[in-house]
Amino acid sequence: MSRFAAVAFDLDDTLCRHDHDVNDLYRRAFEAAGVEPFGEPDELWPLLDGAPDPDDRVGYLGAGFARLAARYDRDVDPVALAEAFETVADDSRVAYLPGAVDALSAAAAAGPVGILTNGPERRQRSKVEALGLADRVDAIVYAGDLPRRKPHVEPFDRLTAALSVDPGETLYVGNSLSYDVAGAHNAGLRSAWLRADPDEAATPYGPDYVLDSLDELAALLTCDSGAESGADA
């Protein structure tokens, strides 16, 4: 028997990741913008400011390209580079993260399964279709199309209403402390933080559980699993 009535997941970097050849994507973005390449993808990612803004992905990437151009003393239009990057990227090129399929199956055995993503449907739908998620879950909420996104309460309220479950009996699994864990807490859901680094601390947030792999979810969902709260992790 499960300790939860329903389980829901974030999408990007929780259930799936992009499956591009990043070096090729980076090169083609410069080609599309008509700009002589500089830097490397591994130099760009650390210059991006926090999590992507679903409403302004071009601005988010453009700020990173602007910082990278300054390092190389290049006079370029960073917004044009960001627009080119978005143009050549294929959102359908995604793959499940390790353990994701089994985690979805374990969640389905516990009760209704949902997806709550901060991206808009126009961009996230291709990922959902590529992964066959529509056949695996009972509800999908695209918070990018709502007036408020995670960590606001509204998307989580939409999610639990769509699943016809009580928020307090729902587990939300996500990789972001500031969006997924904070949002679930605000809306009264239980949270399981999927951390990328086992040495990363949950502070200043307090997820109910901490997962180092989606393979750990099945045990967490079982009432007699003895799983410990992640608040002390």
TrEMBL record:
Q: Which InterPro entries match?
A: HAD-like_hydrolase, HAD-like_sf, HAD-SF_hydro_IA, HAD_sf
State whether keyword Endoplasmic reticulum applies: no
GO function terms (MF aspect) = hydrolase activity
Q: Name one Pfam family in it.
A: Hydrolase
A single GO BP: small molecule metabolic process
Q: Which cofactor does it need?
A: Mg(2+)
Enumerate the UniProt keywords alphabetically: Hydrolase, Magnesium
| Family recorded in the similarity comment | Belongs to the HAD-like hydrolase superfamily.
State the name under which the record lists this protein.
Haloacid dehalogenase-like hydrolase
